[in-house]
Design a protein that fits this description.
single chain, 205 residues, globular, disordered N terminus
Length: 205
């Protein structure tokens, strides 16, 4: 009975105190986005090698269908802000274009991310540090904000700059450097963790 009471108490504290603070943090991010501020907004950055399964892990967490393709799939940082909603509420998705949030079809999230990526990074294989921002509100979603980053690559493909490896690592370091960033490293099952480049980057900050 005590364990059940404790679980109920923690759930009530989360709903009454923690959850409103998370919503406030996300609202502050909307207001202060793009401006220097002393307010450190918490976030989780997903880091890993190319084709390590970063986007798949994020998709399992968020239930949001993200683009999947061979090679460099994530070419622009994606900030995905999720909010839980009652079970009887339909899923709502918005993407930010410039300073305006636009409603999009939940079934076309992947297509809208690809379109935003091409608009920011071009139609080739280049990357950009310009961030795509998306909000998803729906049942069974965690109250969580995560950033999906381009995977670490070691050799350029046709259409990519010769220094693509350095560019990706620089982008990752700049994103995970703030002290308010939690780093989630994703590895392939056959990867040697001691030789992991993502862990090496995380240890630098």
């Amino acid at each position: 009975m005590a364990a059940k009471h404790d679980a109920f108490t923690l759930g009530k504290v989360y709903q009454d105190e923690v959850k409103p603070m998370l919503r406030l943090v996300e609202d502050l991010d909307d207001i202060l986005g793009g401006h220097k501020t002393s307010v450190a907004l918490p976030r989780i950055a997903v880091v890993g090698n190319q084709s390590s399964g970063k986007s798949s892990v994020l998709q399992r967490i968020s239930s949001v269908r993200l683009p999947h393709a061979a090679g460099l799939c994530t070419r622009a940082p994606l900030m995905l802000s999720m909010k839980n909603a009652p079970a009887d509420k339909p899923t709502q998705v918005q993407i930010k274009r410039g300073k305006v949030w636009h409603d999009i079809d939940p079934k076309k999230i992947s297509e809208d991310i690809e379109s935003a990526t091409n608009r920011l990074a071009g139609n080739g294989n280049n990357i950009t540090d310009k961030m795509i921002k998306m909000k998803v509100v729906g049942p069974r979603l965690p109250d969580l904000t995560v950033i999906d980053l381009p995977g670490i690559v070691y050799s350029p493909k046709p259409g990519q700059p010769a220094d693509i490896e350095e560019r990706v690592k620089h982008l990752i370091l700049e994103t995970i450097k703030p002290q308010n960033t939690l780093i989630l490293c994703v590895f392939a099952g056959n990867q040697d963790l001691e030789a992991s480049e993502s862990l090496a980057l995380a240890r630098k900050v």
